Amino acid sequence: MNSTSRSEWWIHKHPLLAALFILATAGLHAQTCLSSPDMDASTRTALENAAKRDFDLSARGDTAALKQSAIPSIAGNFAGVENAVKQNQANFSGASGTVRPPFFLNAEGTAPLERAEFLCGVFGPSGQTKDSAVFLLHNLPPGKYGLAIVDVSGGKQPRTLTLILQQLQGDWKLAGYYVTAPEAAGHDSAWFAQRARDFKAKSQMRNAWLYYRMAISLAVPVDFMSTLATDKLYDEIQTVQPTDIPTNGNAVDLSVAGKTVRWTDVFAVGVGDDVDLVLKYAVQDISNSAKTYEQNVQVTKAVVMKFPELRDAFAGVVARAVDPSGQDYGSLQPMKEIK
User: Fold this and answer.
1) Do 304 and 223 lie in a common domain?
2) What is the total count of domains within the chain?
């Protein structure tokens, strides 16, 4: 099936995004994708071997060799990759890496694509199928790319390594490096999705929304990838969208000890075996740590008192006061101590 047919089906599934999709991908021939069954054996093998090479180098902690295998723009700014390798050394060392079937992405043109959207695999009348994927990459230079996902197990903790590879002079070079955890607090995407449905059944829509967000983030290894699973979760999360907590980048005003606080973000996070809630709010200054700590305590109490359902979903609350520069001061309170 050609890529034009896939895009038409995808637009049929997402009519509200159709106009944006058409504008973003004018001349869809400039962005094509082959899933593993569609590409020739030599390309598939080369991508798999390159992914194994980069994982093996990561497992050995050989960042010098990994840097040599990278494209010039990555090699010239390698600190992020190097830090990711070092931070995950205990997870990589002695572990095994299983490469999933890779994808081949072809971006044509003469200038970077501001919004490059790749529809990979077979799409059906309702959109994605179990073997399809969509990748959305911003400011992507023209070129031939591979995307390989490596499931890492046997180390301290399981990890997922996502590699973007670019073909240069006949070789596949490292062009992107992402390490994520497939679980949070010992639970996978399916567990968080079921908990979200359970909260929805009890009309705890805020808890449901927060757990759906966790389910979506764990369903794919990188946030620029979507699948049938994430599409279904996005459909479900729309049914529990709250309006009185920060969502989709929109802040809300919160009354705290007689003052109005700008509450900017809220999300769940796995900490050890616990699922905690993180609150972010805007302040002018965090230099006085004692004062900021007290503000954190007040904000935490105000949120939990206003939305008592949160007690059923979270073991603790982390409040983070964020100043105009983006620096923050955070403190954790166990839920049982919030009164």
Assistant:
1) no
2) 3
Distance CA 208, CA 159 (A): 26
Q: Please, which pLDDT band fits residue 126 given cuts at 50, 70 and 90?
A: confident
Domain that holds residue 134: 3-180
Residue 21 lies in a domain: yes
The predicted pLDDT at position 179 comes to: 98
- Is pTM, for the whole model, over 0.85? yes
Same domain for 205 and 162, yes or no, is: no
Using CA of residue 321, residue 219, residue 158, residue 78, what is the dihedral sign?
negative
**39 shares a domain with 16:** yes
Digit-coded pLDDT (tens) for 263-287 = 999 999 999 999 999 999 999 999 9
Do 53 and 160 belong to one domain? Answer: yes
148-180 pLDDT tens trace = 999 999 999 999 999 999 999 999 999 999 999
Closest CA to 319 of 293, 339, 338, 337: 293
Residue 30 has a pLDDT of: 82
Residues 142 and 213 in one domain: no
Residues 156 and 17 occupy one common structural domain: yes
247 in any annotated domain: no
Domain boundary among the residues 180, 205, 231 is at 180
Judgement on whether residues 174 and 303 belong to the same structural domain of the protein: no
- Dihedral-angle region of residue 248 (phi above 0 means left; psi in -120 to 50 means alpha; beta otherwise): left
